[in-house]
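Continuing from yesterday's entry. The apo prediction looked reasonable, so today I'm repeating it with zinc ion included to see how the binding region is handled. Same sequence as before; SMILES copied from the compound registry.
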Amino acid sequence: MRRRYCAAFCTMLAACVVYAQGIFLCPKCGYENERTALTCTHCQATIPAPKQQPEKKPASDSGTTFQKSGKLMFLSGAVAEKEIEQARKLMSETNDADVVRMLLRNAKALDLLTDPAIENQRLKTIQALKKQCDAVVPTSLIKCPVCDGSGKTMMKVVNMKGEISFIEVAGRPCPKCLGKGEVSRRAPADERKARQGPALKRFKELQEGRKYIDAGSGAWIPAELDQKLTARQTALVRRAVASDCPLCLGSGLGDCSMCSGVGQVKCPHPKCHRGMVEVFTDKLIVDAKIVRTENCKVCDTKGAVSCRQCEGKGATVCSKCGGTGDRTDCTKCGGRGVVSCKKCGGSGSAGEAVCPDCAGDGNILCTGCNGDGKAAK
Ligand SMILES: [Zn+2]
Ligand SMILES: [Zn+2]
Ligand SMILES: [Zn+2]
Ligand SMILES: [Zn+2]
Ligand SMILES: [Zn+2]
Ligand SMILES: [Zn+2]
Ligand SMILES: [Zn+2]
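Holo prediction written out below.
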């Protein structure tokens, strides 16, 4: 036990300045800065130059380690890897992108608890899987805007009395929906919102089944870490899984009111019918006058044209977040999720003893955002 503490303590000293992939955590305030920064963006403290990988540091994962106080030092990288593996498995077995996305976020949260000095490919793998998720665009069916759901192409017939009637043109279905009467469109926010609840439930059941516990804000950690995270670590995981912009649910995209997400609208030519324009003729067929048609030049016989409002994308930029997909930062902590402990002024110690308020961490969870760093929804 004694040896374990000693080794753990040495690692802790070495990790006072934590350099991660492209970012580093300010040793004074914990703010995430660019690796190239010379001073902390948040507290202006001077940032020491990154040290070369110390030789004493374990080159490989030595499992989960704890500080003398009993709080977590570093989580074993294997735990974060398991989370990624779970996401990969679910993606290939069910294609449940909603839950996979939650797992990937959680993997990112767990990864933040691991020793950043140990090289790994986890973030790269997470990003690759996230890309796969994003390729699964949630869609739903909507009544075809060209044929209004009939799926048919009708032909106008005028009889001898001048009465107008329509007959179906056999073998020529609506050019937009090809006779189905429905078209696929990007699912609007309210539909995606409705799916979010059941997806969260599936995610929760999965994590509970793995004996994980809720670490707040939707972060799940192995049961062995219960009560073992410092305020800063709690904020790290909560920030990593913080919920998205409530309007667009993180996509950064808003619903297009003009095309309802289809990306196309009915051809604006007033006489265009399913891509054909009426041309009158006197030619008699039996006892009725039939209306001859020719190709519509506006829509090129497609019956629909690209939506002007969204330029055919089926979505606009989210009006709430301006396209970032994020909620705005908590004003109380500036997005850090923690604030400096008032009792010890951030030093973590009270005289010779460990500060009782922050348990030596120097930080306490921000009460404004409860650690996720985001403003209230
Ligand atoms: Zn700082
Ligand atoms: Zn149609
Ligand atoms: Zn549109
Ligand atoms: Zn047309
Ligand atoms: Zn948004
Ligand atoms: Zn304190
Ligand atoms: Zn806050």
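Comparison notes:
- The chain has four domains: 1-57, 75-138+186-243, 140-185+255-315, 328-377.
- The CA atoms of residues 80 and 111 lie 5 Å apart.
Will overlay with the apo model tomorrow.
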